[in-house]
Amino acid sequence: AQTVTQSQPEMSVQEAETVTLSCTYDTSENNYYLFWYKQPPSRQMILVIRQEAYKQQNATENRFSVNFQKAAKSFSLKISDSQLGDTAMYFCAVLETGSARQLTFGSGTQLTVLP
Amino acid sequence: DAGVIQSPRHEVTEMGQEVTLRCKPISGHDYLFWYRQTMMRGLELLIYFNNNVPIDDSGMPEDRFSAKMPNASFSTLKIQPSEPRDSAVYFCASSLSIYGYTFGSGTRLTVV
């Protein structure tokens, strides 16, 4: 079974600065996908970025990018030019590509962007 | 597409009452998932369906919980009888490919 660990319950960053959220995971599969989801106060779960484990190139999506270290099973999220609207809970998640389609989440990191 | 639609958005009920949560997945998606979110336990998978068939219900807490998917466009999660510890946000999500799920807005359930 896969597990996901987010060791930073809370973080803050000044507007326009850069922040990195950490995530480590464990899986017995060789093929899997990794995701970051954002949950603002509206509680909607919003997909921020995804990474296929077989791809060495780190995924980027506008101001969001990841640092994927497969051997270390690490998947951090970097937010550049932070904006007030980035304030949210961020969840890291892993999805194995075998028969089980379960998306397993970490405990989340509450990010606050300060004006 | 309107996305995954859940109803109601909020539900307050008395202990012992039956509660039914509803979900309409995105048209064409063949997987549907029910998650529960609490402060103590985070996001937990309760059950998921593939082509309307329940595949894994090992996350369902106890027999008071049941889920159905009578067709590709509708699913329900029922709690009978409800208890205060069932208070949580319940999410429905659907997917077609491996590229992540699309979540509904969730139902906040409060059992008093």
What do you see in this structure?
The complex is a heterodimer of chains A (115) and B (112). By secondary structure, chain A is an all-beta fold. Helix content of chain A is 0%, strand content 53%. Chain A has strands spanning 3-5, 10-14, 19-21, 24-26, 32-39, 46-52, 60-61, 64-69, 74-79, 88-96, 103-105, 109-114. In chain A, the strands form three sheets. In chain A, strands 2, 5, 6, 10, 11 and 12 form a six-stranded mixed β-sheet that branches. A four-stranded antiparallel β-sheet of chain A has the order 3-9-8-7, with no helix packed on it. Chain A has a two-stranded antiparallel sheet with strand order 1-4. In chain A, strand 10 and strand 11 (103-105) form a beta hairpin. The model of chain A has no long low-confidence stretch (mean pLDDT 93). Chain B is mainly beta and 112 residues long. Chain B has no helices and eleven strands. Chain B has strands at 5-7, 10-13, 19-24, 31-38, 42-50, 53-56, 65-71, 74-79, 88-95, 102-103, 107-111. In chain B, strands 2, 4, 5, 6, 9, 10 and 11 form a seven-stranded mixed β-sheet that branches. In chain B, strands 1-3-8-7 form a four-stranded antiparallel β-sheet, with no helix packed on it. In chain B, strand 5 and strand 6 (53-56) form a beta hairpin. The relative contact order of chain B is 0.34. The model of chain B has no long low-confidence stretch (mean pLDDT 93). The chains are: A mainly beta (115), B mainly beta (112). At the A-B interface, strand 5 and strand 11 of A face strand 5, strand 9 and strand 10 of B.
